[in-house]
Amino acid sequence: MNLRIDGRLFMTTAGDFIAISLAVAAAGCTSSGPAETTGFGAAPLMTVHSQSKQLTIDVRSSPQPPVRGTNDVELTVTDSTDGGPVDGLAIGVKPWMPTMGHGTSIVPTIVPEMNGKYLVSGVDLYMPGLWQLRLTISGPMQDNAAPAFEIQ
User: Fold this and answer.
1) Which residues make beta-bridge pairs with 88?
2) Residue 35 falls inside a structural domain
3) What angle do CA 57, 63, 65 make, to 5 degrees?
4) How many domains does the chain have?
5) Spatial CA neighbour of 102 closest among 80, 122, 127
């Protein structure tokens, strides 16, 4: 097989041609920019207590801190007395802007995981300002909490 580069003719085998093509394609797919981070960091964005003070809730977001647009949130719920994880809760999440008196029409999806973790996906924080995540907690107990943060 012949390969012409900058007017010069090179004799190559089909295997050489495939290897060169793959190397060129791989080089085009690399990025010199910063790697995109996904997932939740080890340190919580904040820690709040439920209204009854029976539960402690670590709040992590992706991205962290949360941004204008769609975010994911991980809630880690522990017993305030012994620090043990609390599983088996039904948690409702309503993003709410207390200063504006409204929330969002998009309902986040909540998936219970293990070890007191609850994954909240599709949290739509569509405008700048103070937002609360109004949490309603049911199951073995009834409680609520409202972690709040500012969106730029």
Assistant:
1) none
2) no
3) 65
4) 2
5) 127
pLDDT in tens, 89-136: 999 999 999 999 999 999 999 999 999 999 999 999 999 999 999 999
Residue 98 exposed, middle or buried by CB count within 10 Å (0-12, 13-18, 19+): middle
Spatial CA neighbour of 76 closest among 64, 65, 89? 89
Sign of CA dihedral 58, 62, 68, 70: negative
129: three-class secondary structure by DSSP? strand
My answer on whether 143 and 70 are in the same domain is yes
In-domain check, residue 38: no
For residue 52, give its domain range.
Answer: 46-151
Give per-residue pLDDT as tens, 16-41: 544 444 343 444 444 333 333 458 98
Q: What is the pTM of this model?
A: 0.75
50, 57 contact by CB (below 8 A): yes
Same domain, 72 and 132: yes
The set of residues, in sequence order, having a beta carbon less than 8 Å from that of 25 and lying 6+ positions away, is none
